[in-house]
Amino acid sequence: MKIIMIDAFKPEYLEYAPYLSSLTKKFQWGDLKMPLGFEGGMETFFRGSSSKLALFYKSENSKLKYIKYFSFLEKFGKIGRLIIDCLINFPRFIKRYELFRTGNIPLKQLCKVDFSINNPLYRIKNVKYYYVGDLDRIGHEYGTKSKEIIDAIRKVDKRISAMDFDIILSDHGMTDITKMISVPETENCMIDSTFARYWGEKPDFKCPDGKWIEWKEKRYGDYIFLANPGVLIFPNYWQKEKPVKAMHGYNPECKDMNAFYILNRKGKKKNLKAEELNKIFEEFLNEQIGNLPQIKISEKF
């Protein structure tokens, strides 16, 4: 089974993608609603559900607690951060976990958290997974209406036109930044681009450009401030010197957060939730590997 994932492809981008647009004339396709946050969308697609909100969560027994002994590396700027990322990712590489960069997260916070993702979600028998990441990077840097993103969409579209697929999808949309706000930093917090997450005492902070929300798992934050769509928390632990021009990770009810999908089967437009697309994914996979009982991918492999 072949899956193509185009990071940050919005349904509106089809205007600049003639090949993908042509597929929508004969195959089932539609907007795809992903869950809130940064990491739960693709897990929901592959596994049917997810409790993940972000890349890092608070852990009393953090596997990164040793990082506090390398605090002197923060004095060396980007070179120091590169060394830190190598230290963190080397054991992950040995275990064949996904590799990540840690942005500008202060080591005093990094040593208190763990990664929410280890084994790649797409490592499933009989599944070939192709990841296309150009649009996410360019969208962040130049915005969703820029000449650069339009050129990138056309290049991605041409590349995909030469590829076979069963499912094409994206993991989220993106919206342009219209305002920036700052949030307080505490001893136990994680300041993302759209979230400010706090453990322990709730900070005395009120802002009309967002709201406090609750998440089902407190390890992602006892108190979580979610910015309104188009509002960027800056500076944050990922962008310190230069803000991005577009962002994702907002309330999924915002239309700009919608991802998209196309199935290699005849049909018309039908908007879906990630949970619904998971069921179709499992049906496709079962058909291709011999009509196995309809059970969850996590149980099957």
Description:
With 301 residues, the chain is α/β, with parallel strands linked by helices. Among the domains are: 153 residues, 3-Layer(aba) Sandwich (Alkaline Phosphatase, subunit A), CATH 3.40.720.10; 49 residues, no CATH class. Helices cover 26% and strands 21% of the residues. The chain has eight helices and 16 strands. The protein has a six-stranded mixed sheet, covered by helices on one side. A hairpin with a 3-residue loop joins strand 9 and strand 10. Helix 2 packs across helix 7 and helix 5 runs antiparallel to helix 6.
Question: Which helices and strands occur, and which strands form pairs?
Answer:
Blueprint: E1 2-6, H1 18-23, E2 27-33, H2 40-47, E3 56-58, H3 77-94, H4 107-110, E4 113-115, E5 128-132, H5 134-142, H6 147-160, E6 167-169, E7 175-176, E8 179-181, E9 189-191, E10 195-198, E11 210-213, E12 223-227, E13 231-233, E14 246-247, E15 259-266, E16 272-273, H7 274-288, H8 297-300
Parallel strand pairs: 1-5, 1-6, 2-16, 8-13
Antiparallel strand pairs: 2-15, 3-4, 6-15, 7-14, 9-10, 10-12, 11-12
Short description:
By secondary structure, the chain is an alpha/beta fold. It has helices at 18-23, 40-47, 77-94, 107-110, 134-142, 147-160, 274-288, 297-300, and strands at residues 2-6, 27-33, 56-58, 113-115, 128-132, 167-169, 175-176, 179-181, 189-191, 195-198, 210-213, 223-227, 231-233, 246-247, 259-266, 272-273.
